């Protein structure tokens, strides 16, 4: 959470708008997903470990 607090908003959802269709079910914030991917890489976490980290720290 300290990293998130220091980084604030690193990725804006608008940066990813072209990658998603305009209709359909709303998904998770693309900016938040990108940040999780960056932190997953930085911490060398598996997908499952990253998901667990997100669940326990949000």
Architecture overview:
The chain is mainly alpha-helical. Helix content is 53%, strand content 0%. The protein contains 3 helices and no strands. It has helices at residues 2-7, 30-43, 47-57. The N and C termini lie close together (8 Å). The mean pLDDT is 79.
Descriptive tags:
58 residues; mainly alpha; 3 helices
Brief overview, please?
This protein has 58 residues and is mainly α. It contains three helices and no strands. 53% of the residues lie in helices and 0% in strands.
Largest sheet: none
Q: Secondary-structure element order, as H and E?
A: HHH
Number of H/I helices: 3
Low-pLDDT sequence parts: none
Strand content: under 5%
Indicate the percent of residues in helices: 40-55%
Overall 3D geometry? globular
Task: Tell how many strands the DSSP assignment holds.
Answer: 0
Structural category is mainly alpha
Rg (C-alpha, Å): 13 Å
First-to-last CA distance: 8 Å
Whole-number average pLDDT?
79
SSE blueprint and pairings:
Layout: H1 2-7, H2 30-43, H3 47-57
Helix pairs in contact: 2-3
């Amino acid at each position: 959470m300290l990293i998130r607090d220091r980084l604030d908003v690193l990725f804006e959802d608008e940066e990813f708008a072209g990658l998603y269709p305009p209709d359909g079910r709303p998904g998770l914030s693309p900016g938040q997903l990108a940040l999780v991917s960056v932190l997953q890489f930085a911490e060398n976490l598996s997908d499952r470990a990253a998901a667990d980290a997100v669940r326990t720290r949000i």
